[in-house]
């Protein structure tokens, strides 16, 4: 019934790409996409604006010619660190006059939508997007399904993405997909539209379509500029990310490696643009336990930032924290601790990230967990207390986000056998949860199960059983009787009821449920299954049913040998 500190997921590093279109907010830079222009037919679609001087928001629609282009989304609000003015002006010299006008109009449309969102006028933004959708839909219904219609639908869909209106984006993408499917690959702007679609499909978790449209975008660029052109980098990065998130790790790594080679050739081996693929590739290599290769990737990121920004820059601190993860995987715990400490120091000195940022919080929790692992619990507890104090300062005492820190502190005190203090903190966390969610909400079961464990350690088993049974009831309803959270609750309940002297047959049946759940979740030869098999065999022998346990004993022996060899390796 061990517990561990809560861990938040690492944020993704990104960096500058071609132009300033689809962007991801990060602390290490911006990954962006752009439209570029090739000769096109004159454009004939009309857009609606609410801009003063053109037309009133509720009056007659003001119509302008339209298409999409480079600087369209520069003020999307996601992009905050890259100066793209030079790239924008570079486009203008090669742009046809009609496309230049279209670019300006659609840029104004998107920027106006975003400005409305920024000042809280979401309804006005929706009205404007809807008006433009109705206008372009009239053109489509009239049989016009060209690149201009696709470009405007693209802008509208991205506008709804900025609003967080995923439900509206899906049918928009369906319409856009029908238009794009009929377009030839030679159409201007098509590769950029496809790249945006890939990004939006990813957000909708339609990964199959995301990979499909990213793949077409890659082919379009390769046909026009060759397979080593830097223009192919953006759709390749999008594709690699989706491949990695869908478990196609080997193919994702190969895609990242291709991007690295292209950028090394076109930008140089110390280009900041290499950070994005190196980071994505490093994470996947770490997942595949290719620790040395992952370390090389993260070391390159660290070296790049140190050369570009100096040793005390915040990006250097972030890079050190990612390298610390690799050191953990290698077993170099003390090196990892030193790296985390230095990373936090540089981030504080540089003021690169706000003190209450989730990245800083994750680093403190990760460092605290390492310190506990090497027996430096008091140091780790100080960091956890700092997390709690920061949360209370910026969000207020009793805020739901403080619950994880209270539970972590309780875990720390439990590891030091200070169970009374752990109980106090866990009851505080439960009090906060009851004030903010329903008593049957599954999120309540996390601190409640920790409290059951703590009461068990205080030999207050009747009270511990009461909480464990309540956790089991809520989780069975929330997740299903064969779910992993239910298995965790059952495992805890068995330990408690063992101390209470419950019937061995009942305990054995509970353990069989746990075993079935673990086999489904972790596989039949996992370490979790091995530990539960030990308990099942113990109870079978205790109940005089050793003959039933013989096949399980043989299976257990094989698993012990397997994990013993893994430890030696």
Automatic annotation (TrEMBL):
Keywords, in A-Z order: Repeat, TPR repeat
Is Nucleus given among the entry's keywords? no
Domain of life, per the record? Eukaryota
Query: What InterPro entries does this protein's entry cite?
Result: TPR-like_helical_dom_sf, TPR_rpt
Query: SUPFAM superfamilies given for it?
Result: TPR-like (SSF48452)
Signal sequence region: none
- Kindly give the SMART domains that the UniProt entry links to this protein: TPR (SM00028)
The record's annotation in Gene3D superfamilies points to: Tetratricopeptide repeat domain (1.25.40.10)
Q: Does the keyword Transmembrane apply?
A: no
Q: Which PANTHER family match?
A: NEPHROCYSTIN-3, TETRATRICOPEPTIDE REPEAT PROTEIN (AFU_ORTHOLOGUE AFUA_6G03870)
Q: What is this protein called?
A: Nephrocystin-3 isoform X1
Q: Provide the species name.
A: Solanum pennellii (Tomato)
Encoding gene (name): LOC107012124
């Amino acid at each position: 019934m061990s517990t561990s500190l809560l861990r938040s997921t690492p944020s993704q590093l990104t960096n500058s790409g071609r132009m300033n279109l689809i962007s991801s907010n990060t602390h290490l830079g911006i990954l962006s996409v752009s439209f570029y222009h090739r000769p096109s037919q004159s454009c004939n679609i009309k857009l609606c604006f609410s801009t003063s001087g053109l037309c009133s928001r509720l009056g007659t629609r003001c119509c302008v010619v339209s298409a999409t282009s480079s600087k369209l989304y520069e003020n999307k609000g996601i992009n905050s660190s890259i100066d793209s003015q030079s790239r924008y002006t570079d486009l203008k010299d090669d742009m046809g006059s009609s496309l230049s006008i279209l670019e300006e109009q659609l840029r104004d449309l998107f920027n106006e939508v975003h400005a409305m969102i920024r000042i809280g006028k979401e309804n006005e933004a929706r009205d404007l997007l809807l008006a433009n959708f109705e206008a372009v839909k009239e053109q489509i219904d009239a049989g016009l399904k060209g690149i201009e219609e696709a470009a405007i639908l693209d802008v509208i869909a991205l506008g709804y993405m900025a609003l967080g209106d995923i439900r509206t984006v899906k049918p928009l993408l369906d319409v856009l997909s029908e238009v794009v499917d009929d377009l030839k690959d030679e159409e201007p702007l098509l590769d950029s539209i496809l790249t945006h679609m890939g990004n939006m499909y990813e957000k909708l978790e339609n990964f199959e379509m995301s990979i499909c449209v990213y793949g077409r975008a890659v082919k379009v660029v390769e046909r026009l500029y060759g397979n080593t052109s830097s223009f192919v980098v953006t759709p390749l990065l999008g594709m690699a990310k989706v491949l990695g998130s869908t478990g196609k790790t080997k193919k994702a790594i190969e895609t990242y490696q291709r991007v690295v080679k292209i950028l090394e050739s076109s930008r140089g081996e110390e280009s900041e643009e290499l950070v994005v693929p190196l980071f994505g590739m490093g994470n996947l290599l770490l997942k595949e336990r290719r620790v040395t290769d992952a370390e090389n990737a993260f070391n390159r990121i660290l070296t790049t930032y140190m050369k570009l920004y100096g040793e005390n820059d915040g990006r250097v601190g972030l890079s050190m924290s990612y390298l610390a993860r690799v050191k953990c995987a290698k077993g170099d715990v003390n090196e990892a601790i030193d790296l985390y400490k230095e990373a936090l120091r540089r981030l504080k000195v540089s003021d690169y990230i706000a003190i209450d940022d989730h990245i800083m919080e994750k680093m403190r929790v990760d460092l605290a967990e390492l310190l506990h692992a090497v027996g430096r619990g008091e140091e780790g507890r100080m960091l956890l207390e700092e997390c709690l104090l920061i949360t209370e300062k910026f969000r207020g005492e009793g805020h739901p986000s403080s619950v994880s820190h209270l539970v972590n502190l309780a875990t720390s005190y439990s590891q030091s056998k200070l169970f009374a203090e752990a109980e106090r903190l866990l009851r505080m966390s439960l009090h906060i949860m009851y004030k903010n969610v329903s008593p049957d909400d599954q999120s309540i079961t996390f601190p409640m199960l920790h409290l059951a464990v703590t009461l068990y350690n205080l030999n207050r088993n009747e009270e511990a059983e009461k909480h464990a049974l309540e956790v089991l009831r809520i989780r069975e309803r929330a997740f299903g009787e064969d779910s992993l959270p239910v298995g965790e609750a059952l495992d805890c309940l068995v330990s408690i009821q063992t101390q209470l002297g419950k019937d061995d047959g009942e305990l054995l049946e509970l353990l069989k449920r746990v075993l079935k759940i673990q086999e489904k979740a972790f596989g039949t030869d996992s370490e979790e299954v091995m530990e539960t098999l030990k308990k099942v065999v113990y109870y079978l022998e205790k109940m005089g049913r050793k003959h039933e346990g013989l096949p399980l004993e043989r299976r257990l022996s094989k698993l012990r040998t397997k994990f013993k060899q893994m430890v030696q390796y």
